[in-house]
Write a structure and sequence with these properties.
By secondary structure, the protein is mainly α. It is about 75% helix and about 0% strand.
């Protein structure tokens, strides 16, 4: 948890992992974020469970994660995995909300943006989490499949230009949500690297 300048060019949080004697001797300010995100991750998982499942199944899943040994272990380690779990759970929650929201609604717009934000934060926490953004893109395209096809045909100059006004509005909404989701994801990732592509690629090369 040193400042960014102290660990340049390696911007990854939680590196190097504190294990063994180093973990036991770590100051409280090192352990506190792990405890905090452990509790937050549990609430995020409960929120996701009660959204997707019936009450009994959600309680079972919540209890399983609350007392699962590996989750408790991650909450004790000074490591970034429990932070990743929190961001991914929230990303999936808002992605589900966006999928089930009405087409063109404010709820759909903000849900996809928030899903992209939390995936970006997860990506900045651990590299492989970026794959979830591909999933966000697939969900958005699947929901707006007709708009996606129309926009693609337009870009390839294969479509008839006589679109209905209603269809054009749907296409515009799809493009706005898609572009802003990409911008939000990139911004969330680069915020951890002082908005510097050099810092980003230096860190990427350090962990190859």
């Amino acid at each position: 948890f040193s400042s960014v300048r102290d660990i340049k060019p390696v911007f990854y949080p939680g590196r190097e992992d504190l294990v063994g004697r180093q973990m036991a001797r770590a100051e409280n300010y090192c352990h506190f974020p792990m405890f905090l995100f452990g509790v937050l991750a549990l609430f995020a998982l409960m929120l996701l469970a009660f959204t997707l499942l019936d009450r009994f199944a959600a309680l079972w899943v919540s209890s399983f994660y609350a007392f699962y040994p590996h989750i408790l272990e991650l909450s004790r380690w000074v490591k970034e995995d429990i932070v990743l779990l929190f961001f991914v759970a929230l990303a999936l929650y808002y992605l589900w909300k966006g999928l089930n929201a009405d087409h063109g609604s404010r709820s759909e717009f903000f849900s996809f943006i928030l899903a992209s934000l939390f995936v970006g934060l997860a990506q900045a926490t651990k590299w492989y989490a970026g794959m979830f953004f591909v999933f966000v893109g697939f969900v958005l395209i699947a929901k707006h499949w007709d708009s996606f096809k129309s926009v693609t045909y337009k870009l390839l100059s294969l479509a008839d230009k006589s679109f209905h006004r209603e269809s054009s509005q749907h296409q515009k909404h799809f493009l706005i949500v898609g572009i802003l989701s990409i911008v939000t994801f990139i911004t969330a990732v680069l915020a951890f690297f002082q908005f510097s592509l050099k810092n980003f690629f230096d860190t990427l090369n350090a962990y190859r």
